[in-house]
Amino acid sequence: MLRTPRARTYALVALLAASGVAILELVREQTGTPGFFVGLGLALLPVAPLMAAFRWLGRASPHPWAQLLFCFGWGACAAALIAILANSFATQWIAATTADPSDADQLGSVAIAPVVEESAKAAALLLVFLFRRRQFTGPADGFVVAGFTAVGFAFTENILYLGNAFDEDAANGTGVLNSVTAATFFVRAVMSPFAHPLFTVFTGLGFGAAALASGRTRRIGLPLLGLAPAMGLHALWNSSSDLGESGFYVVYGCVMVPVFGLLVWLAVWIRRRRLKAVAGELAVYAAAGWLGPAEVPALVSMPARSLARALARRTGGRPAARAVARYEADAVALALLRRRARGGGPAREPDFTGRERELLRRLWLRRATAGPALSRAAVLEELLPPSFDPLRPALVGVPAPRDPRSAPLSEPRGPRSAVRGR
């Protein structure tokens, strides 16, 4: 039985490794060895920019790299393997049971592939939602987890498509500029590298909404509600080539691009809203003396956070920079914890007091290193008003913070009393 986190981690790593070997061998068999390596090299090109974009969105509350790499690996290995096997089986079954087997591939790509592929990618979100619940706190986390999973899936799929295109060009002796490989790369990596992330982000938003919802029905229904448009948009995209000579361009220009623009706007809005919420919650802790008054504006500014880590590295080396990074992450986690508990009470965060105490303890231990770096970064980034005096207490009469190893911020009367403030 996989009852411990370590056992589950080992099992998932073994599963991803096995599925990775299997999917790469399947792709190599279909593309040939030369086509496989050409497809692999070309498919890598859009991966870094896409991962950087989703990482930027999640920097307000950064996810551990191990979790993000798991999501990418699930999409590239497990989800891709499930998709290629299920799609192949479904296509063969359709061809054997229909009167016109020539339409099996198209019917499978429109009716079967979107359901199989989006469900396989959604499994990664479900695993994170179930077993890393503290790191799945809202729509922003859904964006990031879905994005990394979909980028991994698109990476493996691009190897297959580009490798097959290269194999076709090699057989026909086609020149580079007029090659199927160049056309495939332009469509998949230049025009629509965001296609798979675009589909799966809807599922991520469903899980993000479920993280904020109360009640089992909503927590189950909202992810399914997000999965439905992911499948629908995926099916529309796959069918665009059969909608006439201009069908692809109509779907791309009238559906894909506007939806992409809408989701980009939504992502930026969610990020700003989360930073604003973090600022409001951390102000309570700063007023009570748990954070320096200059630290809050630095903690909600991405440039100031980066500068604080750089300042710490300059004076204390990598250990100091890591301490500042962990301090920043713990401070944001504390703010989001308080926000969730204040909105939902004991039912939402039954262990609020214990979790708050642990985060405060970790902040306390690193404050001597991180506090000056963050305060200095706030000054250098000009985040403070000209009249601000960092030596002046935030509020007169607020009791000095106690060692969080012995007591939480609020009186220990349960989560609801803890989050109401004083």
Structure description:
- This protein is mostly helical.
- The protein has 14 helices and no strands.
- It has helices at 5-31, 33-44, 47-58, 65-97, 104-131, 139-172, 180-191, 195-212, 216-239, 247-287, 295-299, 302-344, 352-380, 415-419.
- Helix 3 (47-58) packs antiparallel against helix 6 (139-172), helix 4 runs antiparallel to helix 5 (104-131) and helix 12 runs antiparallel to helix 13.
- The radius of gyration is 25 Å and the shape is elongated.
- Mean pLDDT is 84; it is low at 391-400 and 403-422.
SSE blueprint:
Elements lengths: L4 H27 L1 H12 L2 H12 L6 H33 L6 H28 L7 H34 L7 H12 L3 H18 L3 H24 L7 H41 L7 H5 L2 H43 L7 H29 L34 H5 L3
Helix pairs in contact: 1-2, 1-4, 1-6, 2-6, 3-6, 4-5, 4-6, 5-6, 5-8, 5-9, 6-7, 6-8, 8-9, 10-12, 12-13
By secondary-structure content and strand pairing, the structural class works out as mainly alpha
List unreliable stretches of 5+ residues. 391-400, 403-422
Rg from C-alpha positions? 25 Å
Mean pLDDT score = 84
Our estimate of the beta-strand percent is under 5%
Helical residue percent?
Answer: over 70%
Basic shape: elongated
| Number of separate helices | 14
H/E order of the elements? HHHHHHHHHHHHHH
Largest sheet: none
